[in-house]
Amino acid sequence: MELILAIGIGVLTSCGVYLMLRPRTFQVIIGLSLLSYAVNLFIFAMGRLKTGAAPVTASGAIDPTQFTDPVPQALVLTAIVIGFAMTALFLVVMLAARGVTGTDHVDGREQR
Amino acid sequence: MTPSFLLTFALLVPFGAALVAALLPQNARNAEAWLAGTTAVAGLGIMIYLFPQVANGSVVRQEIAWIPALGLNIILRLDGFAWLFGVLITGVGLLVVLYARYYMSPKDPVPRFFAFFLAFMGSMLGLVMSGNIIQLVIFWELTSLTSFLLIGYWFHLAQARDGARMALTVTGLGGLGLLIGMLIIGQMVGSYDLDVVLDSGDLIREHPLYLPALLLVLLGALTKSAQFPFHFWLPHAMAAPTPVSAYLHSATMVKAGVFLLVRFWPVMAGTDAWFWIVTCAGMATLIFGAYAAIFQTDLKGLLAYSTISHLGLITTLLGMSTPLATVAAIFHIANHATFKASLFMAAGIIDHEIGTRDIRKLSGLFRFMPFTATLAMVASAAMAGVPLLNGFLSKEMFFAEVAERDANPFVNLALPIGATIASMFAVVYSLRFVHGVFFGPKPEGLEKVPHEPPALMRRPIEILVLLCLVVGVIPGITIAPYLAAAVVSVTGPDTPYYSLSVWHGWNLALAMSGVALVGGVLLYWALYGYLAQGVDGPPLIRQLQGKRIFERIMLTITSKWARRLEARFGTRRLQPQLFLLFLLAVALPASLLMSRLGGINLSFAGFDPVFALLWAIGIVCAVAAAQQAKFHRLVALILLGGTGIVTCITFVWFSAPDLAITQLLVEIVTTVLILLGLRWLPKRVEDLSDEAQVLKARIRRYRDLVLAGLAGVGMTVVAYAVMTRQIPEGISEYFLENAYKLGGGTNVVNVMLVDFRAFDTLGEITVLGIVALTVFAVLRRFRPASESIAKPEQQRIQAEFDDRAPERSQGDTVSEYLLIPSVIMNWMFPVIIVLAVHLFLRGHDQPGGGFAAGIVMSIGFILQYMAGGTRWVEDRLRILPVRWIGSGLLLALLVGVAAQFVGYPFMTTAFQYAEIPWIGRVPMASALIFDLGVFSLVVGATVLILIALAHQSVRSPKAARHAAPIKQAEVSPDAPVESR
Is B607–A2 a contact, with Cβ atoms under 8 angstroms apart? Predict the structure, then answer.
């Protein structure tokens, strides 16, 4: 299981990095999204993988080893929302830049 | 009041007064003068009061802890020498304030002047009273800064701006050197305490780092005191108002350099390096300054070069390293301050009353202003070294020192001859000042009829000239005890005997004085014809202009080199920058981790084919999205969603229901958002015509692919290595155990977000709110590219169809499009709201919470827009997203602040269960209110972003061209329905 997820994270990272190095803004926004999936999964995986152990406790005394680590989850939850904000801002800046410069190249002008 | 407390007081009062001065009204000349005068009187009073404490060579100290961990304390320290400077600063300061009251015109913004002036006074006092050498550098730089501000006081004049900039650059450079020098000395001695440093003379002189430290300290001292070759800034500093020239650029600030030399004289002087550098710099400055002063046509220029020359004299004396020479140097510091300040003020009066300071235009002023003329003549005589004036006494001591026999031929010949020649030049320029301005025929072509200035404006000059006379005639009674106190604190208890009497008998020094006086008069007579032609600048060395060299150097450094550096290392292209960043991000961890990673045990335990299949789909989606993103954006977007779903399922799989919910909802919103944006992007068709370009692009793609592959492999290795290792002891257990006990909720992730780490969440929702407002603001001025303004192809086809059919009108097809899904979406609205409420309420105990509920709510709104169109929704529903954002943020903040009112730290939460009839026990945590804030803000932000983008299609092309602000999500009846 760990290996599959690790490979998945690796592939998402590769696709994200490759797209971020491309010249068109839309490619970059897709790359950024893929990279943030990879990073979120990576942070999440830092709490180790457990099945059927959601960090929803009971009202009495509990055994912490029966639950998965909630800290990476709290971090990733924040990261997902901030990732959305980043995507939105980038998208709008990208559209505005396209309107102002007349091109969707990341430098704001065609590179020859 | 204790003496040490008085030091703090004396230092703080000028800075406090500077603040007050800055706040007074523009035309409050009298109030400003009274304020500054009182400040100076207070300082002077403290100095006089403290004299008995320092008279016998002892020191008043006040220590305030600053950074004890680094051994740095703020130390105020007053000894005899600092006391002498303290009196000069406050005393001359007082006289200059009185003078400035009459000098400054009612039109000048006086608060600025007096604020800077008082700040300078405080900085200078801080400098001379510093008992910590780092603190000394700080005040040193403060004097440079205030000097810059005062030179540039009339900043509408280019001359003032250039002069200020030049002075700051030169003295600032020296200050930087001084700081490094002080750090080296501090390292040598092991302390930054001046008293410790002063006790470590032998250690410093024999240290291998002595020479670099000396060079750096001298760089500071020589730039500040305008010594050759750094002298050129001082004449340009004369663009300052004359009170500033009298105060900063003759009496006090330029003396800071020689102050530093005297201060460090006990520990750094006496070596060959000190002797040669300091003496040569001083001698060169002495002769050059005097020579250049003769040929100045501007009165203040003449005085500036004369100041340079006199500072050179002091430097020469300090270079000679004998205690007697140092006595002479200290004495001359005081004497020069008195006569030069009075001469500057006299020059200022002439300028003020006549409107010019050009010697060529001035003559015969004695008949118009006899008092001022007499005073200036006496001060000039002191400057020239005429007997019975104070200048004569210190100059005589100077001659006696340079005439000392020595084995070295340079010392034996060059010093006395150079000193005599420089004194001769001093007589010439003093004569030129007096004769050229006050005697000769009546001036012609003047704008004003010259007359005496107001009596009070002349008073400071009278006092200073009286001091010149009194010290010159009866030095033993007047200056002796003060000079003795200053000298003892520098040269130590075994100071050799020196005599201050006027008559020392027939000796070599007297002969040199005689030669200089007679020779000077003869030289003036010989040069008279040339001087009368009124050629500006000294002959022979006219080409040697410090300003031009300075400007050329500055241009080279700040323009040429900067440009070359930018051309070599800078780029406006994003891709190479990102490539380097990613390369670094791969290479750096790789090089660090490679050796420490240890073995990786591949294990296939718990392998699940379903999960493998899931990720096979995820990987295919990601790779395909990467491949399609250039030419098929919609496909790429759908594939991206596929990867998102796989991520979401992974979260569910590994016990993270909260993440899964949030991921799924954000996925929906992001997809809608990007779909709305797609319309504004240009159509891209593959162009394979240019083969060279295609090849180049392909090579670049392969290069990027290799880097991306490496990054992926790195992430895989690191992720796998971490996941297969034992989890270390962390903070997680605490949260798991206490989520219910302290937070009153069983969903630990939610309790962390709204309770344990609520402050983080507050920051996060603030960011979200800011982003939403930014998106809104950017889109207000949105101008689409011209090719995107026309209606999309599909809408054109639909419109054409409507036009062709007689019974249809335009827009019918649009409204009938996907009719059944639209109806379902409309009807789903209340259901979605209930879902949001449900997610919100259960969030504390079960997966859900404010974030998820907020996004669900906004999806509800968005679905209405999609189903009914913008206009249809806005006719029926008024959503004010900015208010949602504002009230959400306020609510979250209020919960935090409320905790403070009941005595808990910011963001503390409380909870208890309440019995509600029919429903049962309901958790009532104040965190729930915080979560409500989160919910409200997320709804507002998401809706604002989406609606702002959706509205772009509604705006008519014309409106877009004129960049009219879009209406916020309110009713916009005249907007045509275009998007569905």
Answer: no
What separation, in Å, do the N-terminal and C-terminal C-alpha atoms of chain B show? Answer: 82
Nearest to B651 by CA among A85, A30, A80: A80
pLDDT for B830 equals 93
Under the banding of pLDDT at 50, 70 and 90, the label for residue B841 is confident
- Residue at token pair 């961890």: B589
State which residue of chain A sits closest to B842, comparing Cα positions.
A56
My answer on whether B642 and B763 are in the same domain is no
Tell me which residue range forms the domain holding A93. 2-49+68-101
Q: Is B953 exposed, middle or buried (0-12, 13-18, 19+ CB in 10 A)?
A: buried
How confident is the model at residue B362, as a pLDDT?
Answer: 85
User: Among the listed ranges A64-68, B51-55, B84-88, which one has the minimum average pLDDT value?
Assistant: A64-68
Q: Are residues B885 and B758 in the same domain?
A: yes
The answer to whether position A110 is within a domain reads no
Q: What integer pLDDT is reported at residue B980 of this predicted model?
A: 36
For residue B618, what is the nearest residue in chain A, using CA coordinates? Answer: A8
Domain tally, chain B: 5
- Cβ distance B633 to A33 less than 8 Å, yes or no, reads no
Task: From residue B486, give the alpha-carbon distance in Å to each of B56, B307, B333, B427, B861.
Answer: 9, 22, 11, 29, 83
Distance between first and last Cα of chain A: 46
In a domain, B593, yes or no: no
**B261 shares a domain with B279:** no
| Cβ–Cβ pairs < 8 A, chains A and B | 310
Interval B756-814: pLDDT, tens: 888 889 999 999 999 999 999 998 877 777 777 777 778 788 888 888 888 877 777 77
B975 falls in which pLDDT band (50, 70, 90)? very low
Nearest CA to B788 out of A101, A37, A102, A23 is that of A102
* Longest CA–CA separation in chain A, Å: 67
Domain boundary (B645, B668, B683) is at B683
User: Which of B723 and B596 is assigned the larger pLDDT?
Assistant: B723
Omega of the bond leading into B973 within 30 degrees of 0 (cis): no
Task: Record the tokens describing residue A106, joined without a space.
Answer: 């990341």
Residues B264 and B285 in one domain: no
Calpha distance B680→A94 (Å, rounded): 10
**Cβ of A11 and B712 within 8 Å?**
yes
**Cβ contacts of residue B657 below 8 Å, gap of 6+?**
A54, A56, B651, B847
Number of domains in chain A: 1
Find the angle CA(B355)-CA(B358)-CA(B364) to the nearest 5 degrees. Answer: 80
Tokens at B302, concatenated: 């003449």
Partner-chain contact A23 B654, CB within 8 Å:
no
Output the pLDDT for position B213: 94
Lowest mean pLDDT of B500-504, B547-551, B858-862, name the range. Answer: B500-504
Range of the domain at B778: 747-980
Q: What distance in Å separates the CA atoms of residue B785 and residue B182, rounded to the nearest whole number? A: 60
- Cα nearest neighbour of B767 on chain A: A82
Angle (CA) B3 B327 B53, round 5°: 15
Question: What pLDDT score does B978 carry?
Answer: 38
Dump pLDDT digits (tens) for B496-505: 888 887 777 7
Q: Are A10 and B636 inside 8 Å of each other by CB? A: no
A32 within domain boundaries: yes
Q: Residue with structure tokens 């760990």?
A: A2
Contact B908, B631 (CB under 8 A): no
Residues 6+ apart with CB under 8 A from B666: A80, A81, A83, A84, B855
Substitution target from A20, A91, A92, A112 for chain B, most B beta carbons within 10 A:
A92
pLDDT of residue B955: 65
Residue of A nearest to B923 (CA): A59
Q: In angstroms, rounded to a whole number, what is the distance separating the alpha carbons of residues B170 and B232?
A: 9
Q: Which of A44, A59, A87 sits opposite B656 (nearest CB)?
A: A44
